[in-house]
Each structure stands twice: as C-alpha cells, then as structure tokens.
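Here is one chain, start to finish.
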Amino acid sequence: MGRVIAIANQKGGVGKTTTAINLAASLALSERRTLLMDCDPQGNTTAGIGFPKDPARRTLYHALILGEPVEGITLKTQIEGLDLLPSDKNLVGAAVELVTVENREYQLKKVIDQVRDSYEFVIMDCPPALDLLTLNALTAADSILVPIQCEYLALEGVSELLDSLARIRVSLNPSLEIEGVLLTMYDDRTTLSKQVASDLRNYFGDQIFESVIPRNVRLAEAPSHGKPIHFYDIHSRGAEAYINLAKEVITRGQKRIGKGAGSANS
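Its structure:
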C-alpha cells in the first residue's frame, strides 16, 4: 500500500509546487512508482510537469465530484514510473459542491483508495489555504510535509497549521504524522538564511529534513519549461537537493516500517 504524503503550508510562495514536482520525480527516478496529485485549482503542478491547459482534459474534479474512475484520468509523465492526476480551474467548484456532501472531508480519500495499492508513494500538492480541499488532503494523507522558506517571518502561519493538524488528528485522521519540515529558498551567502534555518531547527528539532533546498535559478526556471529539475538541469544544486530529499523520505519510510515490525514482534 502506497504512502500518501500531503505537501502543505497555508502560506503561499514557499515552494510547495516545486517540491511536489521534484520530490515525486526523484522518487520515481529512484524506482519507486509514484502518483503526483495536483489538488490546487491553479493547476501549477499539472503545467510544471509538462501538461499545458486543456479544457477537454479529465481532471481530479471529475474523480472527486463526478465519481469517474481514477485510472481513466491519470496521465503518464515524461518520467517512467511517475503518473499525474491533473487539476484545473474546475476544482474551484469542488470546494463549493463538497459542502453539502455527506462525509465531505473523506471524499478525496475515496479517490486515493482506488489506486493506492498501485503506487509506493502518492504525493499531493495542496492549495495555499486551509480550505476544504486541503482538509480533504490531510484527512486522506498518512503524513504532511511542510515546506518553509528561509526568510523573514518564516514561522508566520505555521503555528496555525500545527493547530489545524492537532484538530484533524482529533476529529478526522488520528494517524496523521508529520513527514518532515523542509527548509526551502536557502541562500548560504546571507546571514538571514543561516539565522532563520538555525531558529527553525531549534523549533522543530529532528522533524527538520537534513536536505535543504537552495535558492536556485535553474530550479525556478524548470516549471516554466514543463520539466522537473532532473530533465532541465540535472547538474544543478536544486536537482541534487531534491534527490537527497527523496532518499531521506525513502529512508524514513523504511525506518518506520522497521519500527512497526519490531512492535509487532515484541
């Protein structure tokens, strides 16, 4: 059964979409069959992985609201082993239409459960808001990965997100874990980045990934070309950082499984 990871932070511009695309691509390149889900009506993940806007395309909206089978909606990407469940502006309507649906917070989980056994990882790019779509994603997820930029006011909104996670654990998804906190847009030339990174490590401790995503021009350019960083500039620091992040995610998963086996045997 695949591990479902939601990439979320209610603060915009922290690298959620960049992380979703490049972590998913790195996992697939590590021979882990992966599904990348675009849960944001802006559709930036869909475009950033190489699919321009197409009004005729079936999307997450059709699976979530109209009940269409996921297998008929997923798209093969340029990376072997990486599929995409695309999004577009119609998903805006889903948040409204879900309001009157019974068990509305569990509708995305039903979608994922259709294909969960077909993948080792399901990576969800969430909207930059704690709306009903994000709530559905966190209810469906095994864990949340939180990107935080190494800039002034980096912790702004994070306390609210953590409060929301606590409430979701109580009412909707008791098993939701923090996969990790990812430092993004790190510039080792500035004292500010170093200080913010130090403060975040003191605050989150071992929940912080060792991998740090640098502020990198090639990384910023890649989505506009519809490519993950590995296909745009494999030798960039950004590509190296996301490959290392994928290794950490895989290793953490293996340790989790090992602890589970140990508990079962004790």
